[in-house]
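Hi there. Long-time user, first ticket. I'm pasting a complex I've been working with (about 1090 residues overall). I'd like to know whether the download I got is complete or cut off, because the file seemed smaller than I expected. Thanks.
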Amino acid sequence: MTQTAAPKAAHERPPFWRDATVLKWAAQIAVLLGLVFVAVIAARSAARNLEAQGLTFSWRFLSDPPGIQLSEGFATLPDSGLEAILVGVVNMLRVTASGVVAATILGVVIGIARLSSNWLVNKSSTVYVETIRNIPLLLQIVFWAAVFVSFPSLESEGSGPIEGWLYATNKGLSIPWFFPREAFWQWAVFLLAGAIAARFVFRWRIKVLEETGHDAHAVGYSLAAFLAFAFVGWFAHPLAGAIGWIFGGLAWLFGSIPVLLMQIVLAALAVGLAAWWIKRFLDSLRSPAGLARLTDDDIFRMGLAGAMGLVAAVVFFLVPGITEGINLGLERLFEFWDTKFDFLRTGTVLEFGRPTVETPGRFAGFGLTGMTMSGPFFGVWMGVTLYTAAFIAEIVRGGILAVAKGQTEAGLALGLKRGQLLRMIVLPQAFRIILPPMGNQYLNLAKNTSLGIAVGYAEVVAVGQTLFNQTGATIQVILIWMGFYLLVSLILSAIVNWYNRRVALVER
Amino acid sequence: MTDPIVNEVQESESAPEKPSAGAIRWAKENLFSSVINSILSLLMLAIIVLFVRGLLSYLFSEERLWNVIPRNMKLYWTEAYPVAEMTRTWVSLGVVVVLTGLSLAVWRVGGRTSPRQFGRTLTSLGIAGLVLAILADASAGIRIGAAVVGAVLILAGQAVRLMAGPGFKEETIHIRSILLGVLAIIGGIVWILPIESGTKVSLSIQGVLLVVSYLLGGLITSRVSGGLARGALVGLWMLSLPVIYLVIQRAPVVADVPLMSVFLPSVVGFIVVGGAFLWWAGSGKAGEPGRLAAGVVVLAALGSWAVSLPMLVRFLLLGLATFALAAPTFGGTSKAQKNIVVAWSAGVLLTAYFMAMMQADTGLEGLQGEFIGGLNLTFLLALAGLAISFPIGIMLALGRTSSMPIFRLLSTGYIETVRGVPLITVLFFANLVINRFLPREVELDDVVKAIVAVALFSAAYLAENVRGGLQSIPKGQYEAAKAMGLSTVQTTVFITLPQALRSVIPALVGQVISLFKDTSLVAIIGLADFLRVARDIVPNQPASLGSLRESLLFAMVIYWIFTFNVSRASLRLERKLGVGER
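Hi, the file is complete. Here it is re-exported in full:
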């Protein structure tokens, strides 16, 4: 680098074309302007290309009847594009939730097995991990779907391993299941209350344990509290219908609130959020001695936050459609929940259904005849479960190994047995280390369910593809996909972060 | 879809010290140490026996159509590549094989192993053969064959160990001689398999090439310095990718490229004028005018996209701008000055050469659609994706750790967005939508779009890995660099980035493996990669109907061989570099 000839006095600033701050900002703004320029050009050619193809960029396909049929879901012949996408979302969440549960159980077992002193157990789990995680997931999903097709057909004799209870056929895997009926949600209110009560009971018993030093049976007590609520709720569920009044009121509120008022509320929210962020930012810079000197970057950041808040506020006023949409959406949402509750309404809470074969080669319709897992669902679920379990196993193993050896030795010195040691000393400490990467794996699992498209499982991506093949709304559907997955990522990472902070060691 | 490989802890050798004397004691210690352990062992044994029996019976059942796989090797490997031009793919493979052989010799991969270890491996293989013979529900011929091979292997293994004598642990067997034996066995198998004789000959030639190039590599290592040989090989490996795909396989017809009117003047002009300019800019005396001139070149490079100029000129201008910006950082001494100009000339020549090859029409005939497919396409996607995503990933990581808020915001926004969505949505975006955002005269090839999508996706994950490395660098390094008078760019290029990259090698390799596995997703958007050939193309041929699962299992094995070996190699590299042991 070139050397400057004479040292300058400290207070004298260099000319602006050599001032590092100015140069840095000039470069950043230049890049930003360049990107905006490219974006504008891209948008213009997109508009021109769409026009040339006779297409228009509109969101009408969300409300229009899509004219598509989905292979499974709560509405296989959706009335609108939006409903089709919702079916995809629900299907995606179903396979994600069952995959997360199964992968966690399998992964933890295999992770512990990898540290087993039993040679056979140890080696088998190693072989599992090294095999599964080195094969592309898509290939595994496709393979499991192909395996499913090779199951015996439902028509053939003795197709179910246990007639009336368990079927494994190429029409589906069917097992008995409990199905929520009309009063289920009223009962669910009691379950929620029970969970909250159980939490308080748990804390109280732990406090007793800490004070007296005797085992206070915290788990037993809280379980009993939960079960008591569930039991009472089973009979008292008509009372919980009162919740419906709240939903009804909220639906009425959002249905009758003037758009202008809602715009003001939303704009105030946006500005308030920005102000709150700026205040928190300033607080974080404040030292006991007073406010630290703000650098250019700090000022820029605060300016950016404020500008974003203001822009959002202005947009709410400029585009009333957004506010109308929010109003309508919230009204519909609360109306929907209002229908689930009715004060003093009685009804069945859960109903037990067993798989039955209606006509030869067909299971009786979905609902009361047991839970049937379709071939595509099986393929995706097996694929993501086995694949994610291999990664979870590695995380669990790493987490357990990371617990200091002294902890194990101290536990053994106290006379704990190996099982107790694992349960009371090692796993709780490993849990802190395991949690963040585990959250990542759950997120990966959720994203990987998008591979269901390859075996025809009707999740978000597959539904979206069918939708844009039918309507030509490719850009819109891709935006919906990305928005949906980003939302899932944000929610999941927010949960993990929240939990992480809770279980974090308080350091001195 | 990314899965950083959790730090592998070196597997402790659980096999016994004296197996012959204490096989029973070993079993007692490792399998039946307590009641619960015994139950666990028996349970596990039952599961394994059932599983292995089921698997083997499945694999060796009469109903399996395994002959579909050798019959369709050409499809798996290259899909629709014209049969008349297959020599080109063999030559491509030959290039890779020769480079592999040279690399094995130059990096001295291998070493030695002890006869005990070798004997043990042979014995385990033999036991596996016997297990197959006992458990598999296969035809008598296969079972007897497996039993005989197993018995021979066990005997050979025990013989090796006995010859070595008890307690004799010195490492005297070259791994390379073992590999040579394996190669010979594979060669033998190739000649038994029901494939065309042309293929057999070609494969044998490849085997011979490997051995010859390995010997040649040994010769080279003894003559020139190791550093030079390694540097040259790294360069050759990098060049091999465009050479194989753009020149050898694409068979360009150079006749319709405007060589005389565009390429020659541009190349000469850029080498002469640009070289002189860089000579001056890298001299260390350019100072303020040098910066100004670099700024002008940058503006010219950007402006060249607004006016109609040949693509070559635009790219060379961009390259010149990059060099001009970097020259003050790397220049200073007369040797550095010379290096800059030499690097620039080489860069211009290579860019011009490959762009000419790209602009030329392909000379391949009788093609529907893409000229590349199968495993060939899978490798192209993975390697080109890696090559493109690496620099982008590093830039994003630097942007995210930068002190400049707009860069940080943009990098963070990009990384988090891409990491938040599944690859398949990015692929759909690239495949269906990207053309709409480009001017109508630009029409991107499907393979190019897929490469771009895979690279842009992978870059976000690479960036996070690199960021981890950057953040692990102690602050003292930055301060020391500053005290030495290094500029920010110099600090990054010479001090922090090399350390950061070195410390995240395991994560980077994990990302490479992910990238390789992720390329299989292009099958969904309709590219004929290896997975699509295995899933849709081979099993749907009239002669191969019903072979879907066989074909998929074969694909699994192939994918597994590559990923497993890469992860093993990375473990060795990690141990060699002592990452995590400092």
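A couple of notes from our side: The CA atoms of residues 160 and 167 of chain A lie 4 Å apart. The longest strand of chain A covers residues 172-175.
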